[in-house]
Amino acid sequence: MNLPTTTFSQLEREAKLLMIAHGLLAISFFGIQMLLSVLYVLRLGYGVEYIGLFNASGSFTYILSSLPAGMVGNRFGLRTAMILGGILTVMGMALLPTTEFVPRAWQQFWPILSQVVVTMGWALISINQVPALMAATTVQSRNSAYSLNSVLRGLGTFAGTIVGGFLPLLFAQLLGASMEGPVPYRAALLTGAGLSVFGLIPLFFFPHVAPTVRTAHNQTDAPFPVWLIVLLVLHVFLGQMGAAACQSFCSAYMDTKLALSPEAIGLLTSIGQFTTILAPLLTPRLAMRYGNGWTLMTATLGMALSVLPLALFPHWAAAGTGRLGLLALGAIWMPALQVFQMEMVANRWRSLTFGIVSMAMGFAYTTVSFAGGYLVASWGYNTLFLASVGCSMVGAALMWQLMRQSPQHT
Fold first, then answer.
1. What angle do helix axes 241-252 and 292-312 make, rounded to 10 degrees?
2. What residues contact residue 12 under an 8 Å CB cut-off, 6+ apart?
3. With 0-12 CB in 10 A as exposed, 13-18 as middle and 19+ as buried, what is 49?
4. What would the pLDDT profile of 166-185 be if each residue is shown by its tens digit?
5. Is-contact 185 93, C-beta < 8 A?
6. Which of 36, 180, 230, 385 has the fewest CB atoms within 10 Å around its CB?
């Protein structure tokens, strides 16, 4: 399929509103929250096992919320579902930095409760945004729209990571607090929760639309491709192990193993995040030339290789290089997956397929988060990273098999 790329100005108004909301929410959710939440929990006195449980609670909640989130969108409308998700996301981000003020008997469970709430909210946003963006685009603009959406997400994440890395230092100076204590991180997380409110504004201007899709074909009678979906699920589950290991433990690894400051962690992460601004622009061109399947397979293999420096070289440069590769290739992988999974099934199976694939991704992050904490505690970070490399390579091989089974959707 040889489709021309589409610029942001050429997209429909509805698509632009969704992208702007996604970019603004990414500042807090993927930037400030993702960077500082683990550092805050560590400074509350919890160890790496609790960090694994903390991260796993979020990914497991995403698994349980994926299909219900799609059902809410179908029942009440995509706009209503996304607004509800945005409100829950803001509430969840605000809950975490209040941990120190709840009764002592609740404090051990409060960070996990915040993860549950924020993840339920994000599931409502992300699960319903994908069919909403499909409904707001045409076949000709689809790959470009999803890639540009990833660009804005990357831009927001980059900005949030830069800001998040320096906010604790700023608040430490303003409040006269120690960087070894939780106070600066609490203030920074509350700031991030406040900023996330701005991401809700574009959603209120998004019209009520049904989750239908503008397509050239309407394959209403096509059966559900069970075997192809099984291969896709396994590809997502295993292929994302490397990315999951880094997202769950890279901040803790750089903080506890490499003894880097929060500013250094934020700077290294933001360098990788900068590539996510531009990397998705390659997806439409790669898809036009080689197909979405080839793009998924190659990006997954590249993500596996990006984890190797983390496993083999305990140095800040290796950590920064590995995270950079993971973030850049992940930014290419995601829009290709979103288009690939929806184009391989008929219209009536798209919501079900997206829910199943989202659950598979959630299982990957839950497995790594939950088991990874104990793996690190027993055998070290390098064992976790090496295990994730092997799993991701198997995931790349599964996409090659899927391309052989269904060449028309590659």
1. 40
2. 136, 137
3. middle
4. 899 899 999 988 888 899 99
5. no
6. 180
Contacts of residue 118, Cβ cutoff 8 Å, sequence gap at least 6? 29, 33, 58, 88, 89, 91, 92, 93, 95, 96
Which two structure tokens, joined as six digits, stand for 273?
């995040």
Pick the closest to residue 306 from 330, 287, 286 (CA basis).
330
Gap between the Cα atoms of 249 and 48, Å rounded: 9
Structure tokens at 269: 């992460």
Q: How many CB atoms lie within 10 A of CB 257?
A: 16
Q: Compute the half-sphere exposure of residue 120: CA atoms within 13 Å on the CB side of its CA.
A: 13
What predicted TM-score, i.e. pTM, was given to this entire model?
A: 0.73
The structure tokens listed for 148 are 């540009």
- Residue pointed to by tokens 């607004």: 83
- Please give the structure tokens belonging to residue 113: 């409760």
| 122/188 Cα distance (integer angstroms) | 20
Distance CA 119, CA 123 (A): 6
pLDDT at position 212: 47
Angstrom distance (rounded) from CA 151 to CA 131? 18
CA distance 183 to 321: 31
Where helices occur in 33-141 by DSSP H, the ranges are: 34-43, 48-76, 78-95, 104-107, 110-135
Query: Rounded to 5 degrees, what are φ and ψ at 103?
Result: -55, 145
- List CB contacts of 285: < 8 A, sequence separation 6 or more: 5
Q: Specify the pLDDT at position 111.
A: 94
Helix (H) or strand (E) segment spanning residue 24: helix 13-26
CA distances for 37 relative to 32, 179, 182, 319, 375, angstroms: 8, 14, 11, 19, 21
Nearest alpha carbon to residue 325 among 243, 244, 240, 381: 243
- Give the pLDDT confidence of 38-55 residue by residue, as tens digits: 889 989 988 877 887 888
| CB 209 within 8 Å of CB 135 | yes
Side chain identity, residue 287: A
At 243-257, the pLDDT tens digits run: 888 877 887 888 878
CA gap 280, 186 in Å, rounded = 33
Query: What are 128's two structure tokens?
Result: 């319903």
| DSSP 8-class letter at 254 | I
Q: Which domains does the chain have, with CATH numbers?
A: 8-211+219-409 (1.20.1250.20)
- Angle (nearest 5°) at CA 207 between 202 and 210: 130
